[in-house]
Design goal:
The complex is a heterodimer of chains A (126) and B (378). With 126 residues, chain A is α+β, with helices and mostly antiparallel strands. Chain A has a single domain, classed as Beta Barrel (OB fold (Dihydrolipoamide Acetyltransferase, E2P)). Helix content of chain A is 18%, strand content 35%. In chain A, the strands form two sheets. Chain A has a six-stranded antiparallel beta sheet. A three-stranded antiparallel beta sheet of chain A has the order 4-6-7. The N and C termini of chain A lie close together (9 Å). A six-stranded mixed beta sheet of chain B has the order 10-11-12-9-3-13, with helices on both faces. A six-stranded antiparallel barrel of chain B has the order 14-17-16-15-18-19. Classes of the chains: A alpha+beta (126), B alpha+beta (378).
Chain lengths: 126, 378
């Protein structure tokens, strides 16, 4: 399993890449492996401003439905349209083609609740 | 993200302590299976992925270990009387080597369990029941056993493998001399298989992909498993977990006890009228007969999504006005059809093919249409 050092993580198994005031968000390699074959990513929150830990969508595997939580407060700018046709990108490339949303951060300096790759690995026991 | 899978997985260390173990548990673990508690057993959910395993069964051959299933022998001069009394199908039509799908009606209009009834000979039957219902079924059947038919619970010493898919027959033919292609659907033989005696080889399954189910004493589990995989190597045989067993059966519209049928659903409204035979008397027959004649207020139907969304067990079904008309009993993204499908109970008025219904998914009423089952056409 791969957990790039340049990303930040949540204990709820999302990752976020922060550049300036924009964050790109997805789920971790561990998460996609636990979920198995992902068949649908449903994100109805484009344009909405949400608080940290708010539900921004759901990811569905063959047998399970899981809520997605926003790692930090922000406004959902863009949803990865590629996931509509190829939700399996989340399995194949969770940090690349499998990204889920881009968010304009409410407070780019506030990293409350975010952890490093090392801390995340410790959390999941790898 | 809130995982339905991760959290239980982390809790499993505690939950797993009370679990029962199938004979090949270590074999599955060594094959990389994700093991989950199912019906009180530690069972393989998947090995490489549900979609890949599903496709392998539809197009090649896969092996399910379903040794958690329960098996009861009922025998003696009154065995048939007892089976006729507790089951809905007409077991008197069975001859040695034939099996039938049936159910155990309760007295309140529901179903205790669905099951297979195997006729070994005139006075010997094997009932195959769902693992989660073994104790309930045993007690239920025993409570009707007034003429002292002999009942033996062989669940704990019996292994059951389902070898399913278009390459199943060619695989298994290497392991026995009996011509497997000559065994009709819902028929079985008992004989030598992979060098093991007294194996039941049954042309049955729960996938719609064709193939056989083999029952044998669990001490031979490793030998039979290995033999099947050697025989199937040229067909790229793979293990298949319970995850794809569910998607395969749902594409066929087969009922799953606990989802589509339960203690409160009648066999008539579940579309199981074809296994409910009023040629004989049985538990709750008169009420079920009345239902069959007068019709039921709700029916189990299959549906496909029109709007984007995946139906799931327990989601509400609505009419065009947003009024609740029923509940989803099973739902998934169909791996073969690549579209979301489901089954559920709806009011009779909206049960006809083509009816427009709505599934309540996260607060949105998403359009679906009633379709004929099986979803997967031959």
């Amino acid at each position: 399993m791969n957990f790039p050092d340049n990303l930040l993580y949540t204990k709820d198994h999302e990752w976020i890449s922060i550049e300036g005031d924009t964050g790109t968000i997805g789920i971790t390699d561990f998460a996609q492996g636990e979920l198995g074959d992902i068949v649908f990513v449903d994100i109805p929150t484009k344009g909405k401003t949400l608080s940290a830990e708010a539900i921004f969508g759901t990811v569905e595997a063959v047998k399970t439905v899981s809520d997605l939580f926003l790692p930090v407060a922000g406004t959902v700018l863009e949803v990865n349209a590629g996931l509509e046709k190829s939700p399996e990108s989340v399995n194949k490339d969770p940090y690349g083609a499998g990204w889920m949303v881009k968010v304009k951060l409410t407070d780019p300096s506030n990293h409350t609740g975010l952890i490093s790759a090392a801390e995340y690995k410790q959390l999941i026991g790898v | 993200m809130a995982f339905e899978t991760i959290q239980p997985l982390h809790m499993l260390t505690e939950e797993k302590e009370g679990l029962k173990h199938i004979a090949l548990e270590e074999t599955h673990q060594s094959l990389g299976a994700k093991m989950v508690p199912f019906a009180g057993y530690n069972m393989p959910l998947q090995y490489v992925g549900i979609n890949a395993e599903h496709e392998n069964v539809r197009n090649g051959v896969g092996v399910f270990d379903v040794s958690h299933m329960g098996e009861f022998i009922v025998r003696g001069p009154h065995a048939l009387d007892l089976i006729q009394r507790v089951t809905s199908n007409d077991a008197s039509k069975l001859t040695a080597g034939k099996a039938q799908y049936s159910c155990l009606p309760n007295t309140e209009g529901g179903i205790v369990d669905d099951l297979l009834v195997y006729c070994v000979d005139e006075h010997t039957f094997m009932l195959v029941v769902n693992a989660s219902n073994i104790d309930k079924d045993w007690n239920w059947i025993a409570s009707h056993n007034h003429q002292q038919a002999e009942m033996i619970n062989i669940s704990d010493r019996t292994s059951l493998l389902a070898i399913q898919g278009p390459k199943a027959t060619a695989t298994l033919q290497k392991l026995c001399t009996h011509d497997l292609a000559s065994i009709p659907y819902y028929s079985f033989i008992k004989g030598s298989f992979a060098g093991v005696d007294n194996v039941i080889i049954s042309n049955t399954g729960y996938t719609g992909a064709g193939g056989f189910e083999v029952y044998f004493d669990k001490e031979h589990s490793e030998k039979i498993w290995q033999s099947i995989f050697e025989a199937g190597q040229e067909f790229d045989i793979k293990p298949a977990g319970l995850g794809c067993r569910d998607t395969l059966r749902l594409e066929m519209g087969f009922c799953l006890y606990g989802n589509d049928i339960n203690d409160t659903t009648s066999p008539i409204e579940a579309g199981l009228g074809w296994i409910t035979k009023f040629t004989k008397d049985f538990v709750n027959a008169s009420n079920l007969k009345e239902q069959k004649e007068k019709g039921t207020t709700r029916k189990l139907v299959g549906f496909e999504m029109v709007d984007k969304g995946i139906p799931r067990h327990d989601y509400e079904l609505l009419d065009a006005h947003g009024i609740k008309i029923g509940i989803v009993t099973s739902g998934t993204m169909s791996p073969t059809l690549q579209k979301p499908i489901g089954m559920g109970y709806v009011s009779k008025e909206l049960s006809a093919e083509g009816s427009e219904i709505f599934v309540s998914i996260r607060g949105n009423a998403l359009k679906a249409k009633v379709v004929k089952i099986p979803f997967l056409k031959k």
